[in-house]
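hiii so um. not sure if this is the right channel but i have a protein structure encoded as tokens and i wanna go backwards to a sequence. like what aa goes where. can anyone help
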């Protein structure tokens, strides 16, 4: 079996080591930056709890790696990451090492949260954005490092702005990618599983709110508004009623009645509108079923078409090309969201949606 030595490049992810000259000995813990003295000042520790000793990087070669926290996803960028701080930091090695350590940990956690088939593509894109950030950072400078003589402030400001943009682009990409993966995972679940998970979230919300209301009634929870807790719960449940989710509403009302039956003042009285939600949900469900059988309606406008998608219960705007930035901003302000699966800007099919479409497209229908 090939021996992997402890190095500066892999130290941040190593958890257990063993002396090279004692291959039969028991592994001991390795604590990367286990002792800190101040900014970019620290020591690595090796040894079992209570008996740790400082291990200098110069002596890493005497130890072999036994266990790591995760693979070295970004190890190929280690030298570039360190060098990227040569013009901005008195501790470029430590700064670069920190970047590699934090991003590798983040990447590992991201990969563990997604299906195997999604990981390779995600890792490739992650590396691409990370590499771009390193490249942009290497073009930044500090007069304290390079010296003030003939320091090109304008050029440096442009370089720093470019680096900031690369960081923002990376973070925005990661957020979009993880959200898309999360939605895909959710959509792949069986309907029964999704419904049960959704109910468990609603049930936990009801129980938490009801417990607080009971605490207000008994005096154990002070400084809270009872009516506000009730109205907030009603608002959250009304979303399910207005979407025709009969199953969730029926179980929610039954759960509230369980709480009311435990004695004392009812958490929510039977006169409250919450107890009319089952009727509302059923009416919405009936309307949805009627609309599902209707043929879609559409009208053309200069540059695209407006579609009443009754099966999806969505009003959709399909442009012939990408709308300009001003139009995209207006679409977002009026609650239209981009749906890649339909290549359309859409929102729930309501009278308010139709009014918003008139405002955005400046057409009458």
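sure thing!! here u go:
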């Amino acid at each position: 079996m090939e021996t992997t030595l402890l190095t500066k490049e892999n130290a941040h992810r190593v958890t257990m080591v063993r002396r090279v000259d004692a291959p039969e000995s028991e592994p001991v813990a390795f604590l990367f930056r286990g002792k800190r003295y101040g900014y970019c000042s620290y020591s690595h520790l090796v040894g079992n709890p209570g008996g740790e000793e400082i291990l200098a990087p110069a002596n890493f070669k005497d130890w072999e790696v036994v266990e790591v926290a995760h693979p070295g996803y970004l190890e190929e960028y280690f030298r570039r990451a360190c060098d990227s701080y040569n013009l901005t930091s008195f501790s470029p090695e430590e700064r670069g090492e920190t970047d590699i350590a934090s991003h590798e940990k983040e990447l590992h956690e991201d990969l563990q949260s997604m299906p195997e088939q999604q990981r390779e593509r995600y890792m490739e894109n992650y590396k691409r954005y990370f590499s771009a950030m390193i490249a942009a950072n290497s073009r930044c400078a500090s007069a304290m490092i390079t010296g003030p003589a003939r320091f090109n402030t304008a050029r440096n400001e442009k370089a720093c702005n470019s680096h900031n943009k690369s960081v923002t682009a990376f973070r925005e990409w990661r957020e979009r990618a993880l959200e898309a993966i999360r939605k895909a995972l959710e959509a792949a679940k069986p309907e029964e599983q999704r419904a049960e998970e959704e109910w468990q979230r609603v049930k936990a919300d009801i129980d938490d709110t009801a417990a607080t209301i009971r605490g207000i009634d008994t005096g154990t929870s002070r400084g809270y508004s009872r009516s506000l807790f009730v109205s907030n719960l009603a608002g959250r449940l009304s979303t399910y009623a207005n979407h025709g989710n009969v199953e969730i509403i029926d179980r929610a009302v039954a759960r509230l009645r369980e709480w009311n039956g435990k004695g004392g003042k009812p958490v929510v009285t039977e006169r409250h509108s919450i107890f009319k939600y089952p009727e509302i949900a059923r009416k919405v469900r009936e309307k949805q079923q009627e609309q599902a059988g209707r043929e879609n309606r559409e009208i053309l406008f200069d540059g695209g078409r407006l579609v009443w998608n009754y099966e999806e219960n969505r009003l959709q705007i399909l442009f012939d090309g990408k709308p300009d930035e001003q139009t995209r901003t207006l679409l977002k302000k009026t609650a239209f969201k981009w749906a890649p699966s339909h290549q359309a800007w859409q929102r729930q099919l309501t009278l308010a949606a139709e009014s918003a479409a008139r405002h955005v497209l400046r057409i009458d229908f």
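oh and The CA atoms of residues 71 and 102 lie 13 Å apart.
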